[in-house]
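Minimal example, chain plus NAP.
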Amino acid sequence: MKIVVIGGTGLIGSQLVAQLQPTGHEVVVASPNTGVNTLTGEGLAAVLQGATVVVDVSNSPSFEDTAVMNFFRTSNGNLLAAEKAEGVQHHVALSVVGTRQLQESGYFRAKQVQEDMVEASGIPYTIVHATQFFEFAGGIAQMSLVDGKLVLPAANIQPIASKDVAFFMAQATLAAPANKILEIGGPEPLDMSAWMGQYLQATGKSMEIVTDEQALYSGAKIGTNTLLPQAAVFLGTTNYAGWIAIPGNQR
Ligand SMILES: NC(=O)c1ccc[n+]([C@@H]2O[C@H](COP(=O)([O-])OP(=O)(O)OC[C@H]3O[C@@H](n4cnc5c(N)ncnc54)[C@H](OP(=O)(O)O)[C@@H]3O)[C@@H](O)[C@H]2O)c1
């Protein structure tokens, strides 16, 4: 069958494509770099011709509130309409554990709109909710920086290696539509401050970590376990300490 990977050049997308290619299916990478733009619609109808499954692992180039909402609303709308016109039989989307609980955040409001549109589309679907990727530790550090200190909420987190996410996304792509959200996470829950401490140490960054009950995550108030999967169907096996010890991963 023909599988189109929207965002197939990205962190998850490129690893997902590598997982799917040996299966013998026709796997097509679709992103602005390959001439397919879901935001403008450029190249979309052509790339979807004859597609059975579409996997959407794209992300907004900007996380600014208005830009990210426009990205997920418009590009997802264009994509789902083109899939309907083509008779695509399975739409697989990647979103984030805790999205519904994080609606004070512009990013998570946009992800919720994406999920709601997928669920309402009438196209059989699977939404995968993943926890934070190992590779996103630097992003969390950046967004938590206040006056040179990392100010973090008193919350748990269960990060997962992107290669483990890609592995599960490949399984979900080849399986029948679940028509629901499937949660996945890393091997174990950690205190967010402890995880950030490991990241700072491994990357040689010396910064004070302050745990503050009132600190926001991505602009949203957060509970102790908001970022943990409640009913994970898959846990990645890659261990963070071993992974971050590899020099290429220390970014
Ligand atoms: N970061 C986390 O911890 C985390 C956790 C759970 C879930 N997620 C979700 O995982 C998904 C994938 O994230 P990622 O880190 O793999 O993303 P990424 O590396 O930033 O890649 C983004 C992809 O989107 C493509 N793209 C951008 N604009 C596009 C457009 N207009 N039309 C079509 N494709 C477009 C890019 O294509 P070009 O290369 O051509 O620009 C690229 O392939 C996101 O939806 C995110 O919400 C992330």
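The helical segments are 11-20, 44-48, 65-86, 106-120, 137-143, 162-174, 192-202, 240-244. Residues 6-7, 9-13, 31-33, 36-39, 57-59, 61, 75, 94-96, 111, 130, 132-133, 136 surround NAP (CB under 6 Å).
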